[in-house]
Amino acid sequence: QVQLVESGGGLVQPGGSLRLSCAASGRTFSDVNMGWYRQAPGKGREFVAISGYFGTTLYSDSAKGRFTISRDNTTNTLYLQMNNLKPERTAIYFCDVLHYWGQGTQVTVSS
Prior knowledge:
The protein has strands spanning 3-7, 10-12, 18-25, 34-39, 45-51, 57-59, 67-72, 77-82, 91-97, 100-101, 105-109. It is mainly beta and 111 residues long. Strands 2, 4, 5, 6, 9, 10 and 11 form a seven-stranded mixed sheet that branches. The protein has a four-stranded antiparallel sheet with strand order 1-3-8-7, with no helix packed on it. The mean pLDDT is 96.
């Protein structure tokens, strides 16, 4: 059973940074893709970034150049470094592995 636990969210001012973590357990993850999604208030879940098991990364247009996804296969942890945050990035951020989801971590960008 895959379990995912996101952390690292919080309240940050516009222009600030946060680093999200997703701790995965239940199997090895070095051979699967791992991704981040977000859900803003009143909206559906949308893609943010994905880390391919073969080493490539892919970002949404809004995340490109501002966010960096990375992973540590020795600790089964996925990260999302978010820089230059804007209020419109306020959302619950979820990690996705093999279509399993964690509970999410709230990111609020506000002055």
